[in-house]
Amino acid sequence: MEREPDIDVIAEAEELPAAAAPVGAAELGAIFAGGFLGALARAALEEALGTSPASWPWPTFAVNLAAAALLGYAIAWLGGHHPRTMRARAFLATGVCGALSTFSTVMVELIHLREQAGLGLACAYGAASIAGGLAAVALGVRLGSRAEAR
Fold first, then answer.
1. What is the pTM for the complete model shown?
2. 3-state DSSP assignment of residue 15
Protein backbone atom coordinates (compact mmCIF):
# COMPACT_ATOMS: atom_id res chain seq x y z
CA MET A 1 0.00 0.00 0.00
CA GLU A 2 1.35 3.36 -1.02
CA ARG A 3 1.56 6.22 1.49
CA GLU A 4 -0.26 9.43 0.82
CA PRO A 5 2.23 12.18 1.68
CA ASP A 6 -0.29 14.89 2.58
CA ILE A 7 -2.28 12.66 4.91
CA ASP A 8 0.82 11.15 6.53
CA VAL A 9 2.31 14.59 7.21
CA ILE A 10 -0.92 15.75 8.86
CA ALA A 11 -1.12 12.59 10.98
CA GLU A 12 2.52 12.97 12.09
CA ALA A 13 2.01 16.66 12.91
CA GLU A 14 -0.92 15.81 15.16
CA GLU A 15 1.36 13.56 17.22
CA LEU A 16 3.91 16.29 17.93
CA PRO A 17 4.04 17.72 21.47
CA ALA A 18 2.67 21.18 22.12
CA ALA A 19 5.10 24.05 21.61
CA ALA A 20 6.84 25.49 24.66
CA ALA A 21 5.47 28.68 26.13
CA PRO A 22 7.05 31.81 24.68
CA VAL A 23 9.87 33.42 26.63
CA GLY A 24 8.72 36.49 28.53
CA ALA A 25 10.30 39.91 28.64
CA ALA A 26 11.76 39.31 32.11
CA GLU A 27 13.57 36.18 30.95
CA LEU A 28 14.84 37.92 27.81
CA GLY A 29 16.15 40.77 29.97
CA ALA A 30 17.89 38.26 32.24
CA ILE A 31 19.47 36.52 29.24
CA PHE A 32 20.64 39.85 27.86
CA ALA A 33 22.13 40.96 31.21
CA GLY A 34 23.83 37.61 31.78
CA GLY A 35 25.12 37.53 28.22
CA PHE A 36 26.53 41.01 28.61
CA LEU A 37 28.42 40.03 31.77
CA GLY A 38 29.60 36.71 30.33
CA ALA A 39 30.90 38.36 27.17
CA LEU A 40 32.68 41.07 29.17
CA ALA A 41 34.35 38.46 31.38
CA ARG A 42 35.51 36.44 28.38
CA ALA A 43 36.80 39.50 26.52
CA ALA A 44 38.64 40.75 29.63
CA LEU A 45 40.35 37.40 30.14
CA GLU A 46 41.29 37.12 26.47
CA GLU A 47 42.72 40.63 26.58
CA ALA A 48 44.61 40.07 29.84
CA LEU A 49 46.14 36.71 28.94
CA GLY A 50 46.42 36.87 25.17
CA THR A 51 47.62 33.93 23.11
CA SER A 52 49.34 33.06 19.88
CA PRO A 53 48.13 30.61 17.23
CA ALA A 54 51.03 28.24 17.97
CA SER A 55 50.47 27.93 21.74
CA TRP A 56 47.88 26.47 24.06
CA PRO A 57 44.88 28.87 24.09
CA TRP A 58 44.67 29.25 27.88
CA PRO A 59 42.07 32.06 27.95
CA THR A 60 39.51 30.09 25.92
CA PHE A 61 40.30 26.88 27.78
CA ALA A 62 39.82 28.63 31.15
CA VAL A 63 36.55 30.37 30.27
CA ASN A 64 35.07 27.20 28.79
CA LEU A 65 35.90 25.18 31.91
CA ALA A 66 34.57 27.94 34.16
CA ALA A 67 31.37 28.17 32.10
CA ALA A 68 30.90 24.39 32.20
CA ALA A 69 31.30 24.32 35.99
CA LEU A 70 28.95 27.29 36.44
CA LEU A 71 26.39 25.74 34.10
CA GLY A 72 26.45 22.46 36.02
CA TYR A 73 26.11 24.34 39.30
CA ALA A 74 23.27 26.53 38.04
CA ILE A 75 21.27 23.65 36.58
CA ALA A 76 21.64 21.49 39.69
CA TRP A 77 21.07 24.38 42.10
CA LEU A 78 18.05 25.79 40.33
CA GLY A 79 16.50 22.40 39.57
CA GLY A 80 13.75 21.87 37.03
CA HIS A 81 11.59 24.35 35.23
CA HIS A 82 10.08 26.03 38.26
CA PRO A 83 8.57 29.47 37.60
CA ARG A 84 10.40 30.95 40.57
CA THR A 85 13.79 30.14 39.04
CA MET A 86 13.08 31.08 35.42
CA ARG A 87 14.93 34.40 35.50
CA ALA A 88 17.88 33.05 37.47
CA ARG A 89 18.29 30.15 35.01
CA ALA A 90 17.94 32.52 32.07
CA PHE A 91 20.56 34.84 33.57
CA LEU A 92 23.12 32.21 34.63
CA ALA A 93 22.68 29.26 32.30
CA THR A 94 21.68 30.90 29.03
CA GLY A 95 23.12 34.39 29.49
CA VAL A 96 26.37 34.20 31.47
CA CYS A 97 27.41 30.65 30.51
CA GLY A 98 26.30 31.02 26.91
CA ALA A 99 28.35 34.15 26.37
CA LEU A 100 31.28 33.11 28.56
CA SER A 101 31.85 29.82 26.75
CA THR A 102 32.74 29.69 23.10
CA PHE A 103 32.60 26.55 20.99
CA SER A 104 33.29 28.39 17.74
CA THR A 105 36.52 29.89 19.09
CA VAL A 106 37.67 26.41 20.13
CA MET A 107 37.17 25.23 16.55
CA VAL A 108 39.18 28.12 15.11
CA GLU A 109 41.91 27.58 17.69
CA LEU A 110 42.07 23.88 16.79
CA ILE A 111 42.64 24.82 13.16
CA HIS A 112 45.35 27.34 14.14
CA LEU A 113 47.04 24.84 16.46
CA ARG A 114 47.04 22.20 13.72
CA GLU A 115 48.54 24.64 11.22
CA GLN A 116 51.05 26.33 13.56
CA ALA A 117 52.00 23.69 16.16
CA GLY A 118 50.97 20.37 14.65
CA LEU A 119 48.31 17.74 14.98
CA GLY A 120 49.51 16.50 18.39
CA LEU A 121 48.89 19.77 20.23
CA ALA A 122 45.59 20.31 18.42
CA CYS A 123 44.37 16.85 19.44
CA ALA A 124 45.57 17.35 23.00
CA TYR A 125 43.70 20.68 23.22
CA GLY A 126 40.52 19.18 21.78
CA ALA A 127 40.65 16.18 24.12
CA ALA A 128 41.49 18.32 27.16
CA SER A 129 38.64 20.72 26.33
CA ILE A 130 36.12 17.88 26.15
CA ALA A 131 37.42 15.96 29.18
CA GLY A 132 37.91 19.13 31.20
CA GLY A 133 34.45 20.39 30.30
CA LEU A 134 32.85 17.12 31.35
CA ALA A 135 34.76 17.11 34.64
CA ALA A 136 33.90 20.77 35.27
CA VAL A 137 30.19 20.31 34.64
CA ALA A 138 30.17 17.19 36.86
CA LEU A 139 31.85 19.16 39.65
CA GLY A 140 29.37 21.99 39.19
CA VAL A 141 26.42 19.59 39.36
CA ARG A 142 27.83 17.98 42.50
CA LEU A 143 28.31 21.35 44.22
CA GLY A 144 25.01 22.74 42.98
CA SER A 145 23.02 19.73 44.15
CA ARG A 146 24.26 20.41 47.69
CA ALA A 147 22.90 23.96 47.64
CA GLU A 148 19.23 24.89 47.78
CA ALA A 149 17.56 27.27 45.36
CA ARG A 150 15.96 30.18 47.15
1. 0.78
2. coil
